[in-house]
Amino acid sequence: MNTRSMLIVADDLSGAADCAIAFAGAGRRTVVTLETSGVTTAAAEADHVDVIAADTDTRRLSPQDAAQHTADAFNALNAPGRRLYKKIDSTLRGNWTAEVAALQPLAGLAIVAPSFPATGRTLHQARVLVHGEPLENTDTWKLENAGRPANVRTMLEEAGLRCESIDVDTLRGDIDALLDRIKAAGTQGVQALIVDAHSGGDLKRLAQATTQLDPREHPLFWVGSGGLARELASLPDLFDALPRETLVHEKQEGAILTLVGSLSAVSERQCAMLRERARVSELIVPPAVLRVGSEHTDWRMWQSKIGEHLERHLDLLVRIGRDDAFDPAEGAHLSTALAALVTPHFRHVGGLIATGGETARAMLSAAGIGSLDLLAEVEAGVAVARPCGQHAARPAIVTKAGAFGSEHALFGAWEHLQRLPLPTKPTQQPSQPTLRAPDAATNTH
């Protein structure tokens, strides 16, 4: 059954963008918003928005608060004919089980498939594998979840959901048998159906099967990463309306600023390639300065260093350093302080690349940018956007999750911004979405 529009609910900004970008690539008007209270269904319809991706910013909240924020977002943005996709991290970070449990009574059977084969993340016997290795063995998991099992079914059952699983053989078997299995799960009180997937073809089959079901008879919602989302986006008859012309963004005057809040080894390798190939200057801000903020004795010195580069329109890489006092829970605080260092000079930025959802959100909030029009994808999970509405002439923006992407990701993003088309003669601005979030000062998350 066709749908009028899609609602994506994510727990961080880079996740919202990397999940929604596939729909933009398929010609669907796709907007990422930082605040659900700034969006209305009427505004979305008036601006012909096909996909709304809402960042609830709940990754660092308590499970109870995250669940409430997620339910509130769904209730605020749900509309007749609008399907729900709950975006979760492919490495199972955050409060995703509490959030799925909060949505399930509202939206029906949860179809859970976190695989993202294009980035090496697959699901086998309800366990996440990263390039074939168990998620528990990765640095990403050990950093925040040491000692906890990375088993999707175990995690969902701990959140109180009744679960069943579908293995790859069943997924690849007879389509009618697969559909009967999904229907039976919904009618027999199953709340979450976990689906193994090893390839993009597996996810495409799941997308094709689940969209054959009438949501009025078999209410369901999808729970996944960017992998399942891109297969749904590729279905030609998912939406009622025809695709629209792809949006473009002209190159803006100013420096390309790359902000890296992630401390993962993946980000380290990406930064190394950016430095070497683009010959971009790098500043590594000590976390001690960011913890104290503007009262630190070295604050003005670091602010001046950043300003010296940006005011001269020199491309710059700014990273958060690491020390013995590092705590993953302080990520949002450090990112907010990093954005505060940049803010006085942001008017000199012609392009922004932000690694880490907290870093991207902090910088956009500080700059007063509440929503983004998604444009293109540099590589799987690396999204290019432009600010919406009155900010449409502001910098092009690239977002990427921290422990994500190839070694080429940041350099590829930098190259993409360098190659944006040059401005044409001044003309009347084209129609822009008016979806917007409240000013950063009113941010309640």
Question: Describe it for me?
Answer:
The chain has 445 residues and is α/β, with parallel strands linked by helices. It has 2 domains: 5-233, Rossmann fold; 255-442, Molybdenum Cofactor Biosythetic Enzyme, Chain A (3-Layer(aba) Sandwich), CATH 3.40.980.20. The protein is built from 16 helices and 18 strands. Helix 9 (200-210) crosses helix 10 (226-233) and helix 14 (331-342) runs parallel beside helix 15.
**The CATH topology of the largest domain, please?**
Rossmann fold
> What topology, given as strand order, has the largest sheet?
9-10-5-11-4-1-3-2-16-17-18-15-12-14-13
**End-to-end separation:** 35 Å
Chain-averaged pLDDT: 89
Q: What descriptors fit this protein?
A:
Molybdenum Cofactor Biosythetic Enzyme, Chain A, 445 residues, Rossmann fold, alpha/beta, 15-stranded mixed β-sheet, disordered C terminus, 3-stranded antiparallel β-sheet
Task: Show the helix and strand layout.
Blueprint: E1 5-10, H1 13-25, E2 30-33, H2 41-46, E3 51-55, H3 63-77, E4 82-87, H4 96-107, E5 109-113, E6 121-124, E7 127-130, E8 133-134, H5 139-145, H6 152-158, E9 163-166, H7 168-172, H8 175-187, E10 192-195, H9 200-210, E11 220-224, H10 226-233, E12 255-260, H11 265-278, E13 281-285, H12 287-292, H13 299-311, E14 316-320, H14 331-342, E15 349-355, H15 357-366, E16 371-379, E17 382-387, E18 396-400, H16 409-418
Parallel strand pairs: 1-3, 1-4, 2-3, 4-11, 5-10, 5-11, 9-10, 12-14, 12-15, 13-14, 15-18
Antiparallel strand pairs: 2-16, 6-7, 7-8, 16-17, 17-18
Helix pairs in contact: 1-10, 3-4, 9-10, 11-16, 14-15
